[in-house]
């Protein structure tokens, strides 16, 4: 069984880390840091968000989508369609 509270705490910790990266970017811009250094940090923040998104998607598929698929019916179809659309958005971003 998945510990929802532990997952939530882990997710929030990761998002706070990304928030810190974004605040660091703001400070770099305010201080007129070298553009390439700012871009390097943008890349790091982007990778952190992408990693978070992929982990969240994986958990959703292993939980919500698998449960709905086991039950079948229109709910399963809807959950699979939602997951496919989310994957498409991630691929485009």
Structure report:
- The chain has 93 residues and is an all-alpha fold.
- It contains three helices and no strands.
- It has helices at residues 4-30, 35-71, 73-92.
- Helix 1 (4-30) packs antiparallel against helix 2 (35-71) and helix 2 (35-71) runs antiparallel to helix 3 (73-92).
- The longest helix is centred in the middle third of the chain and has 37 residues, at 35-71.
- It starts with a helix and ends with a helix.
Give the arrangement of secondary structure elements.
Blueprint: H1 4-30, H2 35-71, H3 73-92
Strand content: under 5%
- Give the termini separation: 32 Å
Please write the string of helix (H) and strand (E) elements: HHH
Q: Assign an overall shape.
A: elongated
Taking all Cα atoms into account, the compactness measure Rg is: 18 Å
How much is the average pLDDT?
93
Query: Class by helix and strand content?
Result: mainly alpha
Low-confidence stretches: none
The helix fraction, in percent, is over 70%
Largest sheet properties: none
In total, the number of strands is 0
| Tally of separate helices | 3
